[in-house]
What we know:
Blueprint: H1 2-34, H2 44-50, H3 73-80, H4 88-99, H5 119-124, H6 129-133, H7 150-159, H8 166-169
Amino acid sequence: MVKKIIISLLFTGLLFFGILIVAGLGFLWYSTEAKPTQPIAYSHNIHIEKVGLECDHCHQYAEQSPQAGVPAVEVCAECHEDVAADRPEIKKLMAYWNKKEPIPWNKVHNLGWHVYFTHKRHIKANIDCSYCHGEVKAMSTVRKVRSLEMGWCVTCHRKNNAPTDCLTCHK
Ligand code: HEC
Ligand code: HEC
Ligand code: HEC
Ligand code: HEC
Ligand code: HEC
């Protein structure tokens, strides 16, 4: 009887331990790979839903060049010299501006050097930002929602008669 209880206790203990590890690893993956921490708590949700800005206010290069780019501090300073200037996160922001230093944003999406991707061609083909980046307007912190694996790119190219030879994406 006692032996049975001890065994079942051990078993549930082991089970919980296992669940903890899986949850911990899941959290690590979620917080490190898909969603890096940023130097300033900038929120897309506030600026798109509440302030009413469009993507191209800050990522205007997406339509014209390979990279969408992140905005210069100047774009932020245009509003935040006045707006919410007393709040801690805005003080941090304006400190970069006053020192004329770029904000060291961490990359959320990062293909290796061996892959060539271009925004311009995809935007011209009318593929919406949200197809590849998810509902950024609802995110307080941008998170990667697509794997960006080769199979994902190639499957869509095949469906749309876009080029699939290796040199398209590996130059
Ligand atoms: C007020 C300026 C602003 C607007 C408007 C804006 N963004 Fe951003 N975006 C940023 C900044 C700053 C970063 C870098 C910090 C971060 O990752 O949150 C960024 C990062 C991103 C990233 C991640 C880049 C990476 O590191 O891989 C994506 C994707 C993105 N924005 C998409 C969008 C989309 C889609 C819209 C429109 C729905 C939009 N953004 C509107 C300022 C803006
Ligand atoms: C076909 C898929 C696709 C579409 C559509 C797309 N992106 Fe991207 N985006 C990517 C990929 C892939 C990367 C990573 C590129 C790299 O690491 O070289 C990226 C990176 C970014 C970055 C990080 C900075 C950079 O330029 O590398 C920003 C910001 C961004 N995208 C914003 C946007 C916005 C805004 C739109 C809509 C106007 C958009 N993207 C449409 C796939 C897409
Ligand atoms: C068109 C004007 C405008 C631009 C451009 C703009 N913001 Fe904002 N920002 C606002 C407004 C309005 C709020 C909301 C203030 C409130 O909560 O009422 C805000 C809020 C914020 C907050 C939250 C402040 C807090 O702690 O409550 C941060 C952080 C921030 N912005 C950073 C940035 C960064 C970084 C950029 C540049 C990439 C930027 N903003 C560009 C208008 C702007
Ligand atoms: C939603 C579908 C879709 C996805 C996902 C997608 N692409 Fe594309 N891509 C297209 C289409 C459509 C074109 C052709 C646009 C045109 O004809 O100008 C294209 C064009 C390109 C081109 C230019 C081709 C040329 O002729 O030089 C490159 C490079 C490219 N894609 C790379 C990528 C990479 C890398 C990824 C994955 C990270 C990717 N694409 C994901 C649909 C997609
Ligand atoms: C439409 C774009 C596209 C085309 C076409 C393409 N690749 Fe890739 N390839 C990618 C992307 C994106 C990655 C990066 C995957 C990652 O980082 O997980 C990649 C990664 C790779 C890798 C590195 C291994 C890996 O999984 O990271 C090799 C090797 C490779 N590709 C070979 C090829 C060969 C050979 C061809 C032609 C038969 C080809 N690719 C065609 C987009 C493409």
